[in-house]
């Protein structure tokens, strides 16, 4: 009997991409019986579904689609206590995201459902987007672009006081040195920057020859450009506030493609308005979508993108490929590479 699979894709990680990667990973034609489900994200924003966050699709729709299925591969479908109770055949739930935030891990473990995820899927895309924002913010591209679109050719942008800064010769501080931060460091170093890193979980030998490990205080004090790459934890939430921004050199640039909760955006707007910060680039925010009245929308020198740093076609393919590989491992009885609750793995009959 074939293994029954639900490929619950959306408009980014398409159902057909999930299906194709599953077929490539499990080439035996009769091994899988795959049904596809189209979820509405991002045309409809994700949100909280019962007890899980950042999910797309209703519990009723997922229950109907999952009945009789042993495996689900998805990016945004919720996995809740109610869904698990209603779908006792489910054994494996693969989330093609950096973390399984749309899955109730405790409930999945109790029901014997292994939950996998796809770390690193968007590291390259996010690193490249970070570099784009650094360059745009350092050279004031946001404001000059907006002026030119409105028909204003402003010569005063060539005034010394209004000119941007170069990467070559600048000291750039990276808060976090994981898969994304380390990629950003390599490119910026190749462009001639001196790189400082603050990351309490990184050993000095990991940055040797590329960057210098320093305290957060030293990084902020010395860096003309600061880019955030930390995860949000109790330790890092709000780590860059009014005092930290004030300690940065006047005219410095601040970029965040990590998480909005790391940063006090009101303090950023004040610093942009009074000229202490020379520019900023953001892809993440405390409230998403950004509210119509947000101060960020009118602050000078800021470049904004709508949480799309991880949005590349390559990411969609990588995400599908990573979860398909987990399905193949599971069917072969091999250990799962990225399992959030390995104690729940069932012995395949």
List how many beta strands DSSP finds: 14
The H-and-E topology, N to C, reads as EHEEEHEHEHEHHEHEHEHEHEHEEH
Low-pLDDT stretches are: none
Shape: elongated
Biggest β-sheet description: 7 strands, parallel
Strand residue content: 15-25%
CATH class assignment of the largest domain:
Alpha Beta
Secondary-structure content class: alpha/beta
Number of helices: 12
The fold-level CATH name of the largest domain is Rossmann fold
- The strands making up the biggest β-sheet line up spatially as 10-9-8-11-12-13-14
Properties at a glance:
Rossmann fold; five-stranded parallel sheet; seven-stranded parallel sheet; 18% strand; alpha/beta; 12 helices; 2 domains; 349 residues; single chain
Question: What is the secondary structure topology, with strand pairs?
Answer:
Elements: E1 3-9, H1 15-25, E2 32-38, E3 47-49, E4 52-55, H2 59-66, E5 71-74, H3 81-86, E6 92-95, H4 105-110, E7 114-116, H5 123-138, H6 141-149, E8 171-175, H7 179-190, E9 194-198, H8 204-207, E10 212-213, H9 216-222, E11 225-228, H10 242-246, E12 252-256, H11 265-273, E13 277-282, E14 302-304, H12 313-332
Helix pairs in contact: 1-12, 5-7
Give a structural overview.
It is elongated, with a radius of gyration of 23 Å. The N and C termini lie close together (12 Å). The protein has helices at residues 15-25, 59-66, 81-86, 105-110, 123-138, 141-149, 179-190, 204-207, 216-222, 242-246, 265-273, 313-332, and strands spanning 3-9, 32-38, 47-49, 52-55, 71-74, 92-95, 114-116, 171-175, 194-198, 212-213, 225-228, 252-256, 277-282, 302-304. Strand 3 and strand 4 (52-55) form a beta hairpin. The protein has 2 domains: 3-121 and 312-344, NAD(P)-binding Rossmann-like Domain (Rossmann fold); 123-304, NAD(P)-binding Rossmann-like Domain (Rossmann fold), CATH 3.40.50.720. The strands form 3 sheets. It has a 7-stranded parallel sheet, with helices on both faces. With 349 residues, it is an alpha/beta fold. It contains 12 helices and 14 strands. The relative contact order is 0.14.
